[in-house]
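Support request, please re-run this one:
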Amino acid sequence: MVTDSNFTIGFIGLGLIGGSIAKGIKRVFPNYKIIGFDEDRETLKTALQERIIDAASDGCGEDFKECNYVFLCAPVQYNIMYLQRLKESIGKDCIVTDVGSVKGEIHKKVEELQMEECFIGGHPMVGSEKAGFSFSSDRLVENAYYFITPTKKVSEEKVKEFTSFIEELGALTILLEYDQHDAFTAAISHVPHIIASELVHLVKDMDTDNGILKQLAAGGFKDITRIASSSPVVWEQISLSNKENIKNLLTQAKEHLETVIQALDEENREYLNTYFKEAGEYRSSVPDSAVGLMEKSYEIFIDIPDEPGTIATTTTLLALNHISIKNIGIIHNREFEEGVFKIMLYDDDSARRAKEILRNKNYMVYERK
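Re-run finished. Output below.
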């Protein structure tokens, strides 16, 4: 990769993903020039103040003509709109990429615009229920899988160069055809978001006027439905952009649930046992080593006595050992938790050290598997 200040990268959209990639570039390639555009002027102002971008653009036209790479980091359908605007502005050697979790629509638009020689689709398998530049991190893509979906006409040399660039940011690259990518992400991301949202709707519709289910649903239920808090605009666009794959999988899920209902009616213990067993075995085989599509939670749970000062003593112990705490809470619904005091850390190393320190002080420490 070129490492001098002549290398210029443009960003259209500086939210969680765009902001994180820009921050990662500034950490790894501090001499690269970054030009940014975002509809939110305050985001642009903050990015300039933090020196993540070197220049702010009022649009996505002439300001990007000197770019070597341009990252489209807006919601899926907005990226397609910006792609059209970029066509007449970028240089002949510029590579345009995106970070959308649906690739079919934008690849088809690239073909329609005859931009195949300059487009390499991308999708970092990272995210959070939080959105915006303020939640971005310079290491968000580190150790995360990053799908790369080249067109058939972009040169192999450019694909290798771009892949190497993404790997320099710490990501683990996977090359896929765009249609295969969309089938995969429908299964591991898009349908789970819809199902999580449906679980929330079931509880919301069942709740009482005084909201008792909100209190009872804390803990396990809130954890498994965490992704339902993601941006509705983003997920509206994702759902419509990948609707055929999503519909196929939801139809399969509907058929599976109908079989479960039948097993309940028939009290078919063998089927139900196998159903839960196979799901549990497959889930247990999913590795924890790489970053997935949703931000991983680094949590520990401890038993503490209901006495004044015990929480302060516990948190002070970790602070004295230079461990930063992201969040804390008391778990009243303990259906899935053995410990009553929940501590959320920032990374795996902090969680490991916290467990070791607390256990050495005779705390009973648990963790979610």
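The two ends are 40 Å apart (CA to CA). The chain has three domains: 8-177, 182-284, 298-366.
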